[in-house]
Amino acid sequence: MIQRLQSVWLLLAAAAAFCSLKFSFYSGNIIGENQQKTFASLTAQSNLLLLILTAGVGIASIIAIFLYKNRKTQLRLVLVTLLVSIINLVLFFSETKKFVQNEGKFDLTAIFAIFIPILLFFAIRGIRRDEKLVKSLDRLR
């Protein structure tokens, strides 16, 4: 049953996570070591913690696709991945405070990082629906 709808949501979440590694979330001026402003872009590769969490979300989403036979484990993994992606998003927003105020902007590609928790939420909904369907069929036997 790998062709379930939540597999599509998980695949899209993994793709968005890997895209947020490369594409910028925020860009603007940042004050360097010698008090000069330089233009910089914030990506997940800009910070080690962001890099680890973003790559972890992408990898965990792909692993969760192949746990379709054990829905309880799949649900737990996706819930943990959802929490990590929310923490990741909070870290992205906290990193924007390092930029000079009113001299930066959120990039259009920030939508990748914002869509990850939404896609994971849809996957959780699909996994729960499958679990309810299996429980209802077990009652009929």
Describe what this molecule looks like in 3D.
This protein is mostly helical and 141 residues long. It contains four helices and three strands; from the N terminus they run αββααβα. The chain has helices spanning 5-22, 48-65, 71-95, 111-140, and strands at 26-31, 37-42, 104-106. The chain has a three-stranded antiparallel β-sheet, with no helix packed on it. Strand 1 and strand 2 form a beta hairpin. Helix 1 packs antiparallel against helix 2, helix 1 (5-22) packs antiparallel against helix 4 and helix 2 (48-65) runs antiparallel to helix 3. The radius of gyration is 18 Å and the shape is elongated. 28% of the residues are buried. The model has no long low-confidence stretch (mean pLDDT 89).
Give a nutshell description of this structure.
With about 140 residues, the chain is mainly alpha-helical. It contains four helices and three strands. The protein has helices at about 5-20, 50-65, 70-95, 110-140, and strands at about 25-30, 35-40, 105.
